[in-house]
Design brief:
The chain is of the alpha/beta class. It has 13 helices and 8 strands. Helix 13 links the parallel strand 7 and strand 8.
């Protein structure tokens, strides 16, 4: 992972977090790399290393999906790379241990729109919410294990093409993350947040935001990632081309399903 990207960002992040991120990306086995605390710092580092290789022309904007928002914040000048890396490591460790505090899980729902999914969730006992609105026909639910299980069965009966359990350690982007979110907030309080140099679209509002980022990052951990709305907002504001940085082409695929008029490429 990230083998072709420049080493300088890997070195900077490794020094900031006390972890050999280059070795993690290049030598770790797949199971190790997929662990939440490892995957998040690896994704952040590759995203920033890819960003360092491009020189975007004005005007440009930025956005990130879930942990990708931290790379977007660093690219926009809101956080330094070192502070963003430290925040990502803290976030990953909190999320990795979340399941031991309040057991939960997630599932991907394919082939139903948001309104149909929400109508089913409204009738399920317990806590289960839409966690990721990735694109039309691809959403993720999150919550208590029994509630997610019940919702999965009902969503299948309601016409979902597939409902796929996800191998995660907790109910991310749901109210079950209240505890970890509070701990993350305490950590973020010690960091310096600057005004963005370019617009950055927030996961929790799907709009470009200039301030209040510590609170938004806390809220993000327990709220939906509104990716469909983010892309729609960017297009409405004049975005016609996107470049995905560092993590493959997953977001490009989602964006094409949201708005086929957007052209795209990837670096990393």
């Amino acid at each position: 992972m990230g083998a072709s990207l420049p080493e300088e960002i890997f070195t900077e992040v490794s020094e900031a977090v006390g972890l050999d991120v280059r070795r993690l990306c290049l030598e770790a086995d797949e199971d190790t790399l997929r662990q939440t605390q490892n995957a998040q710092i690896a994704l952040f580092t590759c995203g920033m290393a890819a960003f360092r290789t491009v020189n975007p022309e004005e005007p440009w904007v930025t956005a990130g999906h879930s942990v990708g928002e931290y790379a977007a914040l660093a690219a926009s000048g809101v956080l330094s790379i070192r502070d963003a890396a430290r925040a990502v490591l803290c976030r990953g460790e909190l999320m990795a241990s979340a399941g031991s505090l309040r057991p939960g899980t997630m599932a991907a729902v394919l082939g139903l729109d948001r309104e149909a999914i929400q109508a089913v969730l409204d009738g399920v006992e317990g806590t289960v919410v839409i966690a990721n609105d990735n694109c039309p026909g691809q959403l993720v639910i999150s919550g208590e294990v029994e509630a997610v299980g019940a919702a999965s069965a009902q969503l299948t009966a309601a016409g979902a093409k597939r409902v796929l359990p996800l191998n995660v350690s907790g109910a991310f982007h749901s109210p079950l993350m209240d505890g970890p979110a509070s701990e993350l907030g305490a950590f973020l309080a010690g960091l310096t947040f600057n005004a963005p140099t370019v617009p950055i679209y927030a996961n929790v509002t799907a709009q470009p935001e200039t301030d209040g980022w510590p609170d938004r990052l806390v809220e993000q951990l327990k709220s939906p990632v509104r990716w469909t709305e983010i892309v729609q907002s960017m297009v409405a504001d004049g975005v016609t081309e996107v470049v995905e940085l560092g993590g493959g082409e997953v977001l490009l695929g989602l964006i094409k399903r949201i708005d086929k008029s957007v052209t795209g490429s990837s670096v990393g």
